[in-house]
Amino acid sequence: MGYGIALSSLLAFIAFFLGKYIAIGSAVIAIILGVIVSNSIKLPHIYNKGIGFSEKTLLAVAIATMGITLDFSVLLNLGFETLLLIVVGISVTILSALFIAKFFNIDKNLALLLGIGNGICGASAIGASKDIIKAKDTDVGISVAVVNLLGTIGIFLVPFIALSIGFADKSSGILVGNTLQAVGQAVAGGFAISDIAGQNATIVKMGRVLSLTLVLVVLLIVFSDKKESKSNSKTNIFKNIPLFIFFFLLFSFLATIDILPSIIVDIIKEISHFTLIIAMAAIGLKISFSSIKENGKNALIVGSLVFVVQIIFTASFIILFLQ
Q: How far is CA 221 from the centre of its chain?
């Protein structure tokens, strides 16, 4: 098992270093490196177990510990209209992904991952939901790459749109925070406009991230075994809840009551960040070029159209209800 973990970790270290200089982010770089290695070298079977461990167990660790960044008290800083924007915006994004995908022969699970990644928080949301909906590793890799690429473009595009419309700093921050995919992207896009816009973008973005818990619960209900009788359905859903979700909630609770020393919190954040990169490298190691060629182009088109819908919806909501 050690060989696969070591290879995934090595690629993660390289991706972590390159991520400081390449705007697409370490997670996407890790996937790309994994794909290049797996399609250039025929890895011995001895690597498979460790790669599988990295892709599943370490990803679960990454998602669980990500909860330490989610302080639910942030929701108190959001007005009712902004909370409504976040909830409805996520629903619109996911549903539009499922609808648009039908016209491009995109698999339902890939479309769902594109919607979840765009709607909530990129690679983390995709990683947290992939086992619940039983998505293929290829779909995970493609959706992470597409969503992160769009978010990188959005760092420059969305602030430009906000300024072109004539939004004030607060409204500009809300537009950025409710559309860009990763937390870092939303923060960068917001502060590129002004401090006020950056602060609002950060708060709104954290509100979207906090909604991941609710989305995971909905997915568990929707994807629970429909063959089970109604009398056993609640028990079945409970049994299907991955263990990492309970730890995710535990870490979120600890972040909310703020009892851990800052140094411990920082260590947990680093563990979450790096285990996520290792898991993405492992996912890349299980993807073939042929699968990317088959679905990559259409996934990029669908993801781009969903991003456009997301921006139009958010801008319209702000104009109608928040100005």
A: 20
